[in-house]
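A further point concerns the way the authors explain their paired sequence and structure data. Each protein is reduced to its one-letter sequence and a matching series of backbone shape codes. An entry of this sort, consisting of the sequence and the corresponding backbone structure tokens, reads as follows:
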Amino acid sequence: MSGRVRRGSGDRLVVTHPFAPPLDPPAVGVGVVVADAIGHRLVDVAVPGGLWDPATRTGWKAPPGRGRWRYVNRSAAPPGGITDVTIKDLSARRAGLVQFGVTGRRSAYAVDPATLPLTALLVLDPPTAETGQCGRASFAGPASACSASPRAVRCD
């Protein structure tokens, strides 16, 4: 299937807290792995660090001190097709709580609807998550929480 993989409004995970080192996706990037129910990896990519560059239309947007980061890539060949990543530090609500969303476009994502639901692994301290800053989020609910068509996979 070619098209896009989109994870609804965002999923939440809990990582080791306090964050050591501090969360800083613009400096270190993130790792994203999306796999189906039988373990086939649809996406396994390192999303690079680097602040937003209007000339290349790629990079991280991060309002200072807000605990929110957004990676945007509008180039012709985004890594693994990943065009948007959002990360929000919600640890004021619950220690280590992080919300994230990932959108991929302009790539091939071979998904058999029989192998839904999908699972995402987010690595906040790439490449190996040695400090424990990673988490796995299953797209909760039965397989019907994800749908596939010739143009997209959507999990809500």
